[in-house]
Specification:
Distance between the termini: 28 Å
Structural class: alpha+beta
CATH architecture of the largest domain: 4-Layer Sandwich
CATH class of the largest domain: Alpha Beta
Shape: globular
Oligomer: single chain
Order of helices and strands: EHEHEEEEEHEEHEEEEEHE
CATH topology of the largest domain: Deoxyribonuclease I, Chain A
Number of helices: 5
Helix content: 10-25%
Number of domains: 2
């Protein structure tokens, strides 16, 4: 199984809609998690139909930001467990009957409210013991090496995120490809790059899928 995650910054724009469609048709993921969709459920449903997927869950944009969606190719292989504006949690069934868990996560962008998402991870961790993968825009770093340019990331935010990852024995999957997933000031001396999008997996997930890999796909302008 393959999973695709993307902070699309407005799925309703023609370029984002078409680009994601091309990526899905090319890479053929079974599960897609998108954040900052900035659109209504109808747009996501239209996209779901356009790529031949059978199921979706949408948490619509609140105000002028946010919004997340999870899409899946086969209706009877995914069961929705829970959701709110920051996450969508599902159980996936393999064809052999075994199950694992995927949580699409869009961590709270407001730094003052970052602990809310960390507490969410703590709560979700107690729901079941299936092999678990959290994927999405974490809006936080695990070390200063995850950021290049600008001021150092606030220590208390780095440590707070690390505490959650370590407390629940989650592994930060190695990213294959370009080491950063967000940038600002491209082409200037003030350029900043940060690794914000990642996959965190449980020991059970790594044992079940020892060959699993995480790729940072290239994106066109």
């Amino acid at each position: 199984m393959s999973i695709l995650g993307w902070n699309c910054h407005a799925l309703g724009t023609p370029w984002a809609f078409q680009f994601l469609k091309e990526i899905v048709l090319q890479k053929k993921p079974d599960l897609v998690f998108i954040s900052e969709i900035l659109c209504k459920q109808l747009t996501v449903e239209r996209f779901t139909h356009s790529v031949g997927f059978k199921g979706s869950m949408v948490v619509e944009t609140q105000g002028h930001s946010g919004g997340i969606a999870m899409l899946w190719r086969h209706q009877n292989e995914v069961t929705l467990q829970s959701y709110n504006k920051n996450h969508i949690d599902v159980i996936v069934r393999n064809k052999d009957g075994t199950e694992f868990r995927v949580t699409g996560l869009y961590e709270e962008p407001d730094r003052k409210r970052r602990k809310e998402t960390w507490n969410l991870i703590r709560t979700l961790s107690s729901h079941n013991t299936l092999p678990w993968c959290l994927i999405g825009d974490m809006n936080n770093v695990l070390s200063q090496a995850d950021k290049e340019g600008g001021r150092p990331y606030p220590h208390q935010l780095v440590q707070g995120f690390r505490d959650v990852v370590e407390d629940y024995n989650l592994t930060d999957m190695e990213l294959i490809g370009y080491p950063f997933t967000w940038e600002r000031g491209s082409g200037t001396t003030d350029k900043i790059e940060v690794l914000l999008d990642r996959a965190l997996v449980s020991i059970g997930f790594m044992n079940k899928f020892p060959e699993a890999k995480l790729f940072n796909l290239e994106i066109s302008t």
